[in-house]
């Protein structure tokens, strides 16, 4: 039995697994939990992140508007399933107007550390890079310097310092719909200056694990377990009908998280349901958040569906770890296995 290191979360959203399930994740039976019309002007609500907050939950949501501008909005929920999302984008304050000036903002992650909620997102600054801000109340967000130069996407923090440093995964990119992409870990002593970049793992060439053959990117803030960091990520294949986004999982070394201990060859969830296969961008399942209950080992994953709506799926730490360990592969063209 693996153990989640962290707090108990007795009010984690939950449904028991179906009697038979080939995949380690199973969907909430009333998915999607958030429709297109999550707030007043939204065209779509997806690729969004939630955390426990007060006696319920809070989150930062990607809402593309009816003019199709991409921005991030705070939202609140009592049960993690029914959400009220602000009609106005989050309020960012910061020292340098050069940095707080908005071009576009999307795909937020939220990471709780030492009394603050850190938001990372894909931030337009002469190309996509990683924005960082912190909040204590989900009302005022204090924006820090962008972590990296353009071009980069999918900045995801580890939820505590490791070996005395903050660590963040990211996926260096290009200006457009990037046709490549590997995950790196960068380190910082102050959340401003990032360096000591380490390669974690990459897309997998050939057909050994073809669903992740084009590019990969980190998803939710990783979950600490006594066996290592449990990482859920997305993997992409290029097809004659365009990109398809599926979810995978890997186990990372606790002290040197760029070292991959196990990585599943098979996906853990993929666009199979109509709301995942049809929408503004078909065939996308894109995880950005996971809640975990250290008491029971339950995990609830929030994911964007077809760039249109938000879905919820469940697993347990044991199911997920057993699955990736039993179909782990030596990804010689990807990360180093330890
Ligand atoms: C990626 C990002 C995601 C999106 C995905 C599929 O490049 O833009 O926000 O979900 O493409 O369109």
UniProtKB/TrEMBL annotation:
Q: Which domain of life is it from?
A: Bacteria
An annotated Gene Ontology molecular function: hydrolase activity
Instruction: List all membrane-crossing ranges.
Output: none
Sorted alphabetically, the keyword list is: Glycosyltransferase, Hydrolase, Transferase
Does the keyword field hold Transferase?
A: yes
The record ties this protein, via SUPFAM superfamilies, to: Arabinanase/levansucrase/invertase (SSF75005)
Family the UniProt entry places it in: Belongs to the glycosyl hydrolase 130 family.
- The entry's protein name is Glycoside hydrolase family 130 protein
């Amino acid at each position: 039995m693996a153990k989640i290191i962290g707090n108990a979360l007795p009010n984690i959203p939950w449904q028991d697994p179906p009697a038979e399930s080939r995949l380690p994740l199973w969907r909430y039976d009333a998915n999607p939990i958030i429709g297109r019309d999550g707030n007043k002007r939204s065209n779509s609500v997806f690729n969004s992140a939630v955390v426990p907050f007060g006696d319920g939950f809070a989150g930062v949501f990607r809402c593309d508007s009816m003019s199709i501008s991409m921005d991030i909005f705070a939202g609140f929920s009592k049960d993690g399933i029914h959400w009220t999302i602000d009609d106005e984008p989050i309020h960012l304050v910061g020292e340098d107007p050069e940095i707080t000036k908005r071009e576009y903002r999307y795909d937020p992650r939220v990471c709780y550390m030492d009394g603050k909620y850190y938001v990372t997102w894909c931030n337009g600054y002469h190309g996509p890079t990683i924005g960082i801000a912190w909040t204590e109340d989900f009302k005022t967000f204090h924006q820090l310097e962008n972590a990296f130069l353009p071009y980069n996407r999918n900045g995801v923090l580890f939820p505590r310092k490791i070996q005395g440093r903050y660590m963040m995964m990211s996926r260096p990119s290009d200006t457009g719909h990037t046709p490549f992409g590997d995950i790196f870990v960068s380190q910082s002593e102050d959340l401003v200056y990032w360096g000591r970049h380490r390669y974690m793992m990459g897309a997998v060439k050939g057909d050994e694990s073809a669903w992740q053959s084009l590019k990969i990117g980190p998803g939710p803030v990783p979950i600490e377990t006594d066996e290592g960091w449990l990482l859920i990520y997305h993997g992409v294949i290029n097809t004659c009908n365009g990109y398809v986004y599926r979810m995978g999982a890997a186990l990372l070394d606790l002290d040197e998280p760029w070292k991959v201990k196990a990585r599943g060859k098979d996906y853990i969830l993929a666009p199979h349901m109509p709301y995942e296969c049809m929408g503004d961008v078909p065939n996308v399942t894109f995880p950005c958040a996971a809640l975990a209950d250290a008491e029971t080992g339950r995990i609830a994953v929030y994911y964007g569906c077809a760039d249109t709506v938000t879905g919820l799926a469940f697993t347990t730490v044991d199911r997920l770890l057993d699955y990736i360990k039993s179909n782990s592969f030596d990804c010689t063209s990807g990360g180093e296995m330890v």
